[in-house]
Amino acid sequence: MKTVRTFVVIPALPERLAPLLEIANNLWWTWNPAAVELFHRMDPDLWEGVDHNPLSLLGQLSRPKLEALARDDSFTSHMDTMRRKLEEYLSAPTWYDKTYGDDDGQHIAYFSAEYGFHECLPIYSGGLGILSGDHLKSASDLGLPLVGIGLAYRQGYFRQYLNSDGWQQERYPENEFHTLPLQRVRDADGKLLIVSVPLGDREVQVRVWRVNIGRVSLYLLDANVDSNAAADRAITAQLYGGDAEMRIEQEILLGIGGIRVLRALGIEPTVCHMNEGHSAFLALARIRCLMRRHNLSFADAREVTTAGNVFTTHTPVPAGNDRFAPALVLKYLGPYCAPMGIRDDELLALGREDAGDEEEPFCMTILALQLSSHANGVSKLHRTVSQRMWQALWPQVGPEESPIDAITNGIHIASWLSDEIERLYRRYLGPQWRNHLSEPAMWERVKQMPSSELWRGHARMRERLVAFARTRLRTQLQRRGLPPAEVARANEVLDPEALTIGFARRFATYKRATLLFRDLDRLDSILNHRDRPVQIIFAGKAHPHDTAGKELIREIIHIAHQYRFRNRMVFIEDYDINIGRHLVQGVDVWLNTPRRPLEASGTSGMKVPPNGGLNLSILDGWWCEAHQVDNGWAIGSGEEYEDADYGDEVEAQSLLNLIEMDLVPLFYDRGAGGLPNGWIARMKASMRSVCPTFNTDRMVREYTERCYAPSGQLFQRLSADQFRPAKELAGWKHRLRHHWREVAVVRMDHREPGDLQVGTQLEVEAEIAVGSLQPADLRVELYHGTIDSKGSLAGGQAAPMRLSHNNGDGRALYRGSIPCTTCGPHGYTVRIFPAHPNLGDPVYTGLIHWG
Predict the structure, then answer these.
(1) Hey, what domains does the chain have and what are their CATH numbers?
(2) pLDDT for 302-319, tens place per residue?
(3) What is the Cα–Cα distance from 380 to 401, expressed in whole angstroms?
(4) pTM surpassing 0.90?
(5) What b-and-e string marks burial along 540-549, b requiring 16 or more CB atoms within 10 Å of the CB?
């Protein structure tokens, strides 16, 4: 084989245009319309042809064209303004600095398997990646001391095209990293950084790329290194590609490799945020690092590591959580964990609900839950679903007390907002509106926005969407080899003034993309009404191995090809951020039809209200929290059906009823000046109610206040004084477990005050056996509530009991009171948890005694 020497060529710009590279290499430009316009004006056609990639644009422009731009005073003034805006953004005081101080010692590392920032960086597949990208953008806006960790996928996720029968096909074009907004990372000596990652009995080398997202850096690990074997170079080839063995290799690279990269860069995170369970092996890496560097035991290092880990679960069904065969885990993690002094069964127990079940697979979500101090679902309903799903980990408390909280997802509004609406916000919400995204009072100013201006701005985006859909459809038909007359038909589809519904997402069966099609004749009468037409634009991908999802796409294509629907229904291929942006900006209504409660959160619908669109959705995920009577429409009332087919039929009819009897009349009922005043009032209500809450500004602040700050502070406390507090806590837990069997509720009773009336208190006394422990080691609570027909406590609440007397003979007396706030039968019991100043949620210990 010939020896090939490689070299990299970068764009050669006239000196006057040097700032273009600085701007292009920071994805800040993606959420600043004036910066996007800077690149667009250089060559509009080429800009579209390179998928809006400024590095490719600069590399393909001719030298004469570049020199002409360098002489163009208007262009260079625009460029200088953008560079100045970027510099001002990077140096401006931030919310985090003002709230926590710019030197509070916190360093946050955010781990995710995918990131979706912009179509020019295709290392994402769907909602999880878009959320991760929006999270980092808002972390930059707020000034968090945060870095991201991910994988650099050479082929990214697949590109979609459909054959003449409407069957999804996949292709995997290679990403040329040197033409993307990435830079190779160098070590302290200026050499290109290479990090070794253990995979079972071998080591894999990874190189590292950096992406700049405003103030935040994202580091991507890339196994496509010459010194690796061909199979190892393929580990980072595809997102979610390959079999279980490929999956565990990717997740080791992400978790363990990610920690090694941070160490190589001199970054010591106090908090690691695992966005889904893919990166959970990072917890083992942090434990091992602490053990080796500070001579800690596994138990000591586990306390510190767990304190500094935050975990977000996104999956509402058990089958959606990564599980690996025990033999596979031991093959890859056994050699890595052996020096940590934990046996194979102890390692596997970290990822099992039942530690004694030798056949149970190893679950990444369980590993993350057991090695984190904070865990959350991504909506309030998803919290409830997750608490039920993982209750077996904490069987001694009810699911409502499982230590899984809720932080509802959001979107980075500036990234999804149309230029037209953004200009209206600057005019009527104020020029600094982006700095007040989570303040409801600012969004109340939407009331002052002239209805005519809002309607015209949104109508222009609908027109732009229709033009975009026609262009994409022509391209699709030409590629399939259809006759010219059929291709020309694309110019006639859709109506720029018709009520436009959008449906775009991953084509999983539970999302029910074809729910509308259960009564085609009725749908025909709605879509093709002579005076009040309705049209639907579909987009989305099915996983390459999801045959049922592909069938849904084919069904849509076949129906859209029927003569009666051909001008009212379009499927746009190869769904990506660019298509998504056109859709959320231009549709009047965003349709969401998941089978409740299988939508953990969903964020696509959140992107519509800032642009003036409305949601029509099942009450699932985020819409349960957002829906109000005047800001959109709910399909059903939150029912869950045991008979799925019956539920589909009921909700399909409800959906068609809403469109025909509510949406269509409201949209087409025009008043003075041709304005649909009722519809516009609903647009404004949606903006005011949805925008201040369902954004990543609020979400990231919430993560900081509820997770990052307390987790980082606990990590720092346990690490102080050469980890003395961590050692003390680990020793205390060992002693507690040894003596916990001595703890019991000996007696509990209350004083009979006669008839209890609302507003009075019931005084309760309990005698507790503390054994060899001390009362300070225990937290004694009253657990009280109403009594249901079966004699059980319903809707229980906890109230603390105070130590009244320590007998000194292994027993102590506690007292507490129960407020009587409602009439009817009530009951109570007493329970005992461990208590320690450095203990997080005591439910994690699994230790509890009930009266």
Answers:
(1) 15-91 (no CATH), 95-406 (3.40.50.2000), 414-424+451-482+494-675 (3.40.50.2000), 743-850 (2.60.40)
(2) 999 999 999 999 999 888
(3) 14
(4) yes
(5) bbbbbebeeb
